[in-house]
Amino acid sequence: MNFKRHSLSTLVANLKTVFQRHSAWSVFAFLGIVIVILYFPALTAYFISDDFGFLSYLHFYTRDLLNGQRWGEWLLGGIQGAVFFRPLANAFWVLHYIAFNLDPVGYHSVSMLFHLLASYVVFLLVTLLTRHRSAASVSALVFAAMPVHAEPVGWIAAIYDPIGGLFFFLSVLFFVLYLRQHLPKWYLMAFGAFMAALCSKEIALTLPGVIILYDVMFHGLAPLRLGERIKRHAPFWIMIAVRILAFGHGNTGLRLDERNGWNWLDGILIRVANPLIVEPNAVMQLGVLVGVIFLVWVYRSRREVLFGVLWIPITFFPTIVGEVSDRSFYISSFGLALVLASILTRPPFYPRRWWSVVAAAGVIGLIVIYSAALITTNQTMRKAGDVAETILKQIVKLHPSASPDERLVFVGVPDRIPEGPLVFLTGFPGLLHPWYGSREIQALKFNKFPMWLDNLDKVFFFEVDHRRVAERTDLVQRLKERTQCENYSAPFQQWNFATSPLDWESWNQLVDFAIRDHAWSMRAVGDDPILASPPFELSTLAIGEIQITMRVRAKQPTLRGEVYWLTTSQSDFSPGLKLTFPVLADGDWHTYRVDMARSGMLLLGDHITQLRLDPTDAPAEIAIQSISISTHCSSWQNERCVCTPP
């Protein structure tokens, strides 16, 4: 667009007014009041999920970090490892811990402050894009009140998004000022803010695409040569190349396929429609997509609307190969705020005298809906924190102290509350480490209690039922009784293959079956031969050894066998639930013993219902004489193992 000299001077003067006049700061104050009101339910919420991982690390290693140690481990990786490169935001974590220790109010206050600053920069940026203070004010208010921001602002561990969003918006703001005024200071500030955003969240990798979009849409007709345009954008792309080559792209792997694309598009539509569509379905989402296309057509001459619409998929694009979440939509939501504000404050064709009333009603209605949904979501975030804090207090009350060699085992620990927010999906061990003063204490959560038979004096079982925690000393006693039965053994099930396979089945890579020399003979033709037992049922607490008597001939002198088991809590055999044993391929008979009870992988209350035997891991000639299962219990009374015959 061709700007006249006096028009540019007027624009610069107006921009200075935006920064300097008291009314601009009144917008900042008003946004602050709105954010405090809307996020007040989450202000005193306790920590949840990933928060405990950060706090555990910082509780023990902040002194090391201040002494210049562990920088590579923390600043360049954080608790997630080097998959994420967020040194600036991780540095803020250290400052927060120094200032607030284990007080969640301070952390929430800082998150709200970053959201306030980001909302105010949205106001300044939209002022530049639209030259309308009403549109800028509405966009900032909409951005501040969006319910999709409850997670990135209300969840302490998601502070990366408000921090990254603030610097992202600042970078675009300074780049716009540079193109308007051509002052080098604005360019340097834009590049510096980009660097800060890039060191806060991976989503900043999309910023060069945004500023190219702005350059083309708002300055496409300016009499500037292509070489000049390339020169001003090249440093941003070079920095992205350096960032990716040195530290990766910030995800575990590029897995772009059709399903990723639909999930990504679905994620955009859901968050654009939130909370206007409570339970989105395919028809409603299609309606949203059609509505967006209609808006693009109606407002095709309104550059800021098209810019806002295109901003959303550009900035949300990295989630197409990663996790689609509300917090990843934080930067993308600027585009939605810009579009809504422009539509509501600047009519496309209606008489303005009528549209002002319609627009005011629309803004009020939208803010009311957004605010109600945001407050409700923040209340659920607080509820999740209350659950975490209540569980912690009860654990400490039941078990006031712990030594580093203890194992605290929990079942029923909630990953989420029914309304959705996380509680302990991750970070559960970090909940207890600061309280007990050691990161060596094992705090483990299971769906069922594990059947452990070693060091039972250092094992403590706890059952969580909603917010109530109870210690299960009775289970430890049962396991101690079971260990006293180690010397007792009786046959439970025995298969002698002298005359038939006895309902055992071949599932894979086994041929040439025959009964010869009172044994079941077969040939493995690959490295994954599989046999499956007939169904049976035996309590995990009662099971003893599995004995396999077989003869193997192969080219290798030693092979590997594997025993898998299926229980009542499994739908199929699991690759992680198996025991291996060495197999001698010397052509002689050998009896192999597998002690499942001491594997540490069985669960109390389960019953084993089937075995899977992989006799070798290579082609071989195999003959199996017998397979047997023993039990250490002579009887089973009230779920207790009794080993003295009645």
Structure description:
The radius of gyration is 32 Å and the shape is elongated. Helices cover 49% and strands 18% of the residues. The chain contains 19 helices and 16 strands.
Summarize this entry quickly.
This protein has 646 residues and is of the alpha+beta class. 49% of the residues lie in helices and 18% in strands.
Considering the chains and any ligands shown, give keywords for the structure.
ten-stranded antiparallel β-sheet; alpha+beta; disordered N terminus; elongated; 646 residues; four-stranded mixed β-sheet; 16 strands; 49% helix
What's the topology here?
Blueprint: H1 5-20, H2 22-43, H3 50-66, H4 71-74, H5 87-100, H6 104-130, H7 133-145, H8 150-154, H9 160-181, H10 184-198, H11 207-219, H12 226-247, H13 258-273, H14 282-298, H15 303-316, H16 333-345, H17 352-398, E1 407-411, H18 428-436, E2 442-446, E3 459-465, E4 468-471, H19 473-483, E5 490-496, E6 505-508, E7 510-516, E8 519-524, E9 530-532, E10 538-539, E11 543-567, E12 578-595, E13 607-614, E14 620-631, E15 635-637, E16 640-642
Parallel strand pairs: 1-2, 1-3
Antiparallel strand pairs: 3-4, 5-14, 6-9, 7-8, 8-14, 9-13, 10-13, 11-12, 11-13, 11-14, 15-16
Helix pairs in contact: 1-2, 2-6, 2-7, 2-17, 3-5, 3-18, 5-6, 6-7, 6-9, 7-16, 7-17, 9-10, 9-11, 10-12, 11-12, 11-15, 15-16, 16-17
